[in-house]
Amino acid sequence: NKKVVKVGQKKGKYSGGILSGTGTVIGLVEAESERMMMMMMRRISERAATGFSKNLILRSSASRFHGESLDSSVSPVLIPGVHVFHCQDAVGIVAKLSDCIAAKGGNILGYDVFVPENNNVFYSRSEFIFDPVKWPRQQMSEDFQAIAQRYGAMNSVVRVPSIDPKYKIALLLSKQDHCLVEMLHRWQDGKLPVDITCVISNHERASNTHVMRFLERHGIPYHYVATTKDNKREDEILELVKDTDFLVLARYMQILSGKFLKGYGNDVINIHHGLLPSFKGGYPAKQAFDAGVKLIGATSHFVTEELDAGPIIEQMVENVSHRDNLRSFVQKSEDLEKKCLTKAIKSYCELRVLPYGTNKTVVF
Ligand SMILES: Nc1nc2c(c(=O)[nH]1)N[C@@H](CN(C=O)c1ccc(C(=O)N[C@@H](CCC(=O)O)C(=O)O)cc1)CN2
């Protein structure tokens, strides 16, 4: 029951207002045009008071608190931030972190904590909203860094999606492009908050293919780097990906060397069309079919030097039966791996994925 109307659109910082209830309206308004939204609000509130809508709730992507004045001259524009933290466990960490946010007027909307049994470590992920005027971005980094130093944190990362640059990624693939196509479509839909710097493949593609036309339309370079068993051309690939934040192997069928992984230095995320640790290596769908399994799956994992052995980020499964054949195994696997990979990348970008122990992950 939501209609979208643009109340005003001028250059400048958007604030957002979402009204929900019967006859709802989503108004994307400029900060200067909030007065118009307030007028609309008052009119709807008057109608609400007449029983027009019992559950009118003002929520906005730039949120306001209950009880606070709706007069735009008073209400700040609040934006979301995320912070993840990993350190040795100690009493008072949650209090310290939540106080760090509250002290600057931030409001925590979600807080996940994990302290494993028999393992003296602490993990947390908080989602909060804050006023960037009250808590400037650089000051936020310094405030969280001070806590990280106090607890000797192994990991402390804060991101403000509307201020921080998007993660830069390169996509690597071989012949199959269903995972790449899914990634590109999700990216185009805005569901994958990344900047795709380039696509690299050891297979050439004709210019009139869907993938190549899409990449050309969006100005994303395609690099054909022909590899052989004796020459994986890793130095050239390293040069092409040197400015990226992480890599995505979307069915890249070349095993990356330890030298490459060390030389690159950032995370590499792979999609395996099998339910690891079963059926590692090539042709996992056929391995599963030959094994007579009743569940097939896909696994997204961090890439380590050992093949298909890195920490698992996301897995998805589907039932199969005697009525399936190899073709349906492959088709079902491909459908699963597309979804599994995009979910894993989204979780990674939202700071939900943290290394846990030597070969596991915490995924909030
Ligand atoms: N160091 C790593 N490199 C790669 C990993 C990894 O986990 N660690 N994952 C693979 C993807 N992959 C399965 O998901 C995979 C890739 C390649 C092979 C394989 O047997 N490749 C042959 C060549 C195959 C060909 O040329 O068509 C080989 O390299 O000898 C198995 C599984 C990506 N890289």
Summarize the topology.
Blueprint: E1 2-6, E2 14-20, E3 24-30, H1 34-49, E4 57-59, E5 79-88, H2 93-102, E6 107-114, E7 121-130, H3 137-151, E8 155-159, E9 167-173, H4 178-188, E10 194-201, H5 210-217, E11 222-224, H6 234-241, E12 246-249, H7 258-264, E13 267-272, H8 284-291, E14 295-302, E15 312-319, H9 326-349, E16 353-356, E17 360-363
Parallel strand pairs: 1-3, 9-10, 9-12, 10-11, 12-13
Antiparallel strand pairs: 2-3, 2-4, 5-7, 5-8, 6-7, 13-14, 14-15, 16-17
Bound molecules: the ligand Nc1nc2c(c(=O)[nH]1)N[C@@H](CN(C=O)c1ccc(C(=O)N[C@@H](CCC(=O)O)C(=O)O)cc1)CN2.
Concise account of the structure shown:
With 364 residues, this protein is an alpha/beta fold.
